[in-house]
């Protein structure tokens, strides 16, 4: 959410009515999240001036770890230098920290491609935004999931009950520090996640949703403490011992 929001902001800056705007002080502390959108706190540290040049060698974009040779345009400006500077800063201050770690496994290659393409400035801001929107579409639509349900058959569903929220085993990237609360596309995906975690014995799909509209599922190490709830369903892992208990 943070990276996509940043890319939308940089897309706006690259095509602003004032020309392509570069952020001069590109530190994470210069940004704030307001209602899920990233905003720049101080536009005084921004410029629309694009570097003037006589030849290509005047147009090197320098960073501590890397330099990029750019072209000098016929009007004597370094082509796209503001957009490229913003994008590489987004890569080094945000993408490298945030993109690799929390996506479902099937979406990780798409994020690696974005990381690689922005890290080498092979993408401009337009392609970067397009690539992010594609990942978001796959994520929201569930198209990244396996087509055939495989995991739900390992569970017994108990309608009219839910588990009590209490401290339980932790997982990453959980939405709650008390236990394992993850966003899922479907009950089937929740079952696949529960199967992949040896502590998990049961789960419920809660009424809460994330910014993408995906519901949060709560995973638990045992289905004790069931309470009646007409709208809920508890899914309990089938195994020799739970079979006996039920
Ligand atoms: C992108 O991938 C190529 C080929 O694997 C690699 O040589 C290059 O270092 C990568 N760039 C970044 C920024 O990760
Ligand atoms: C990027 O998108 C903007 C806005 O849609 C468009 O005006 C511009 O021509 C595009 N630039 C490139 C290099 O495709």
From TrEMBL:
Alphabetical keyword list: Kinase, Signal, Transferase
One GO cellular component term: extracellular region
Alphabetical list of InterPro entries matching this protein: FAM69_kinase_dom, PKDCC
UniProt-listed Pfam families: PIP49_C (PF12260)
One BP annotation, GO: skeletal system development
PANTHER family noted in UniProt: PROTEIN KINASE DOMAIN-CONTAINING PROTEIN (PTHR46448:SF2)
Protein name (Swiss-Prot/TrEMBL): Protein kinase domain-containing protein, cytoplasmic
Chain segments annotated as coiled-coil in the UniProt record: none
Organism in which the protein naturally occurs: Eurypyga helias
Signal peptide stretch: 1-19
Source taxonomy: Eukaryota, Metazoa, Chordata, Craniata, Vertebrata
Domain of life: Eukaryota
Domain (FAM69 protein-kinase): residue spans on this chain: 2-116
Molecular function terms, GO-annotated: non-membrane spanning protein tyrosine kinase activity
């Amino acid at each position: 959410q943070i990276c996509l929001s940043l890319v939308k902001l940089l897309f706006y800056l690259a095509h602003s009515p004032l020309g392509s705007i570069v952020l001069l002080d590109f530190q994470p502390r210069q940004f704030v999240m307001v209602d899920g959108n990233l905003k720049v706190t101080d536009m005084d540290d921004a410029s629309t001036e694009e570097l003037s040049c006589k030849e290509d060698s005047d147009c090197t974009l320098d960073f501590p770890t890397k330099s990029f040779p750019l072209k000098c345009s016929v009007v004597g400006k370094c082509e796209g230098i503001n957009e490229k500077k913003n994008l590489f800063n987004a890569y080094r201050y945000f993408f490298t920290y945030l993109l690799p770690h929390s996506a479902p496994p099937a979406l990780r290659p798409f994020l690696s491609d974005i990381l690689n393409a922005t890290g080498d400035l092979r993408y401009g801001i337009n392609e970067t935004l397009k690539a992010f929107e594609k990942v978001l579409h796959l994520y929201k639509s569930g198209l990244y999931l396996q087509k055939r349900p495989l995991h739900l058959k390992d569970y017994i569903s108990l309608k009219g009950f839910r588990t009590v929220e209490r401290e339980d085993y932790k997982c990453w990237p959980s939405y709650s520090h008390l236990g394992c609360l993850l966003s899922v596309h479907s009950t089937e995906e929740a079952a696949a996640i529960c199967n992949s975690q040896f502590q998990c014995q049961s789960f419920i799909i809660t009424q809460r949703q994330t910014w993408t509209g995906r519901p949060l599922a709560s995973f638990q190490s045992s289905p004790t403490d069931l309470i009646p709830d007409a709208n809920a369903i508890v899914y309990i892992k089938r195994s020799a011992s739970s079979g006996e208990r039920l």
